[in-house]
Every structure is written in C-alpha cells, then in structure tokens.
Design a protein that fits this description.
187 residues, 5-stranded mixed sheet, globular, binds the ligand Nc1nc2c(c(=O)[nH]1)N[C@H]1C(S)=C(S)[C@@H](COP(=O)(O)O)O[C@H]1N2, binds molybdenum atom
C-alpha cells in the first residue's frame, strides 16, 4: 500500500517569529504570528487566494477526526467540519495522478500528499488500541470547525489538515494534520 511520503518535513522554526496565542497565556503550543488568514492555492502559474468567508461558504464535509502523535499521544475523537481538499485543489486548475500536493504553514512545516492520498486513500489507520486496521472511507479536509466551534490557534486554526472519517473510532497519524495551513501547492 502507498505510504505517506514525507519528502520534506522541515521545521524551520525561528524562535523570533514564534509566540503564544494572542490573548491566551497558558498555551504550550508555539503558534506562528501573525496567524494565516487566507489559504493560497498554487498550481503552475495560477495562484488562487481564498479567505475565511469564501472557504466556509463552500460545501462542507462533517465527520470525525482522531489522531495520534509520533510519540503515541491520542487526540480526539473530535467532530470536525471543513472543506474537501479535492474541492480546493479543483479551484486552481488541472490535477492528476502525476501531481503531488504540498501543504504548508508559516512555521515552515510541510507535508506532501500524493494523488491517492488527496482522494483519501493510502493512509495508515489504527483502532483505539493503536492496532492497524483496514482503512474505512477517509476524507481529506481543511478543517475550520472542531467540536462545533471555530478552530482555535492552539489547535492549529484557523485552518488545519485533517484525515476525516465517517465514524469516531478511527485514528490517523497526526503528522499529516498540518496546523495553520496557509499554502496548498500542486506540483
Ligand atoms: N504547522 C505545523 N503542523 C503540524 C506540526 C508542526 O510542527 N507544525 N506537527 C505535526 C505533528 S508531527 C503532529 S504529531 C501533530 C501534533 O498535533 P497537536 O499539536 O494538535 O497535538 O501536528 C502536526 N502538524
Ligand atoms: Mo508528531
């Protein structure tokens, strides 16, 4: 089966440009400042910039998200709401099996998805005991709401990649849940 392709997963964290969530004193997460307000989709010469109103007005997917970090810490399950990655990419032009999709954030984090993954295939899925299970239907979304509220910056808002599921009992790898998404680039 196709695996995640972490071709480049670079954290170029300049301490100077990292600080806590504005207005939140107890944050343990290094949140980029300023937070991204828009998502830019780049496909060749085409650059499409989408703001919050445009993204949240698009058809939404609602389901569940449940992740595990590299060190085995589970987060969720959450009710998640967002826009399908396929719908966003379609706004910027042609996209086919030969393309990779780079999703990145202002802290320098970048995760690469192949064509199959953008359609929800080729991801590792685990049960609550972290045992690998056959993948149920998965939907890759850019989440903007978690548990019925706008996604907070501590949780990776305003926009975060999520491998979403139709049931709350499926865990996916948190490394692909890119926080603070500001750029989607089709290569
Ligand atoms: N922008 C950005 N997104 C990121 C990361 C990061 O360093 N920067 N870390 C990833 C990794 S490796 C994991 S395990 C999860 C952690 O998610 P959490 O902070 O919500 O627990 O976020 C992922 N998304
Ligand atoms: Mo991680």
């Amino acid at each position: 089966m196709m695996r995640l392709i972490p071709v480049l997963c670079v954290c170029l964290l300049a301490a100077a440009c990292i600080c806590g969530c504005t207005g939140t004193a107890d944050t343990a997460v290094a949140v980029p400042e300023p937070l991204p307000g828009n998502i830019t989709i780049i496909n060749g010469e085409t650059e499409t910039v989408l703001d919050w109103d445009t993204i949240t007005a698009m058809p939404a997917f609602e389901g569940y998200g449940y992740s595990v970090s590299t060190v085995g810490i589970k987060s969720g399950p959450y009710d998640v709401k967002g826009v399908r990655l396929t719908d966003l990419i379609a706004l910027a032009g042609e996209f086919g099996p030969e393309n990779l999709t780079w999703i990145s954030a202002p802290d320098g984090y970048l995760w690469v998805f192949d064509y199959e993954q953008v359609q929800g295939g080729g991801f590792i899925t685990l049960d609550d005991g972290l045992k690998e299970i056959p993948a149920p239907p998965l939907t890759v979304i850019i989440m903007y709401e978690q548990d019925g509220l706008p996604l907070t910056c501590n949780d990776g808002g305003p926009f975060r990649m999520v491998i979403a599921t139709d049931t709350p009992d499926v865990i996916t790898e948190g490394s692909s849940w890119v926080k603070w998404v500001d750029t989607i680039e089709v290569k």
